[in-house]
Amino acid sequence: MVVVKVKGLKKSYQKHEVIKGLDFEIRKEKCIALLGANGAGKTTILQMLSGLIKVSSGNISFTGIEEGEDFRKLIGYLPQHPVFYEWMTGREFLEYAGKIAGLSKQDSKVRTEELLELVGIMEAKNRRIGKYSGGMKQRLGIAQALIHRPQLVMLDEPVSALDPFGRREVLELLERLKKTTTILFSTHILNDAEEVCDEILFLHNGRLVESGTMEQLRDKHQQAKIDLVFKGKEDKYIEHLSSLVKVQSVTIEGSKISFFVTDIEQARTVFLKELAELNWPLVKFEISRTSLEDVFMKVVEK
């Protein structure tokens, strides 16, 4: 079932077009990552989907909502920099959010207890928000976005400002939530998207340059890759090994050299034989699958 369908979505500011005609749809109970570099337009898209800013042209249609009808009751939204009343307790804040969302006093209390348990901050429910850690605040913010049982929850860079521990807490929460909730979250951190999402929307300079599941994207853009790590400078290794087999491209990340080759079996045999004969100071030899970062760089460079 499709929750929301986007067609020809555009946004301009003073004749400068920042979102350049997007087409995509979001299906029920999927976790979708809106992936792109800072400034790609991710926040603008989420704000249009949430009704916070107007679209310049195009159409956003939610299943079950007639044209002109208020669709905001169907969505929950957590901005990149959420603001809390830090003098409130977590429980007070969620009950307050529930009442604003239209829940009765009793329903708000019941729902608050459910969500405090779900996001893992029940033990801190009577603690003032000002005493919460960054990860706890993000989990409280996600609970606020879920308070009225929306069909779609949108999270803008939910882990980008967190330390590793807080980031892990929120990613594990998203992993649990996606089993029952449709989630759209924006991020520029590729590993986070690869870890928890079912589908990916690649955004670059206001355009959707690729979309699909991880498996679909890997199948489409799969490249045979051998990763090598040596002690010392890598220049002489690159030049020599590249002359032995057909190499499509070479990338360097820190001390790791990645050879993208046409024939992985041939390259493995030739590389290992040559490395053994020359006795080069090899630290690591790995045949790896195409990562999300590899896919992203490939589609962006087109």
TrEMBL record:
InterPro entries: AAA+_ATPase, ABC_transporter-like_ATP-bd, ABC_transporter-like_CS, DrrA1/2-like_C, P-loop_NTPase. The keyword Translocase does not apply. Pfam families: ABC_tran, DrrA1-3_C. Residues 4-230 form the ABC transporter domain. SUPFAM superfamilies: P-loop containing nucleoside triphosphate hydrolases (SSF52540). GO terms for molecular function: ATP binding. Coiled coil: none annotated. It comes from the Bacteria. Keywords: ATP-binding, Nucleotide-binding, Transport. Belongs to the ABC transporter superfamily. This is ATP-binding cassette domain-containing protein.
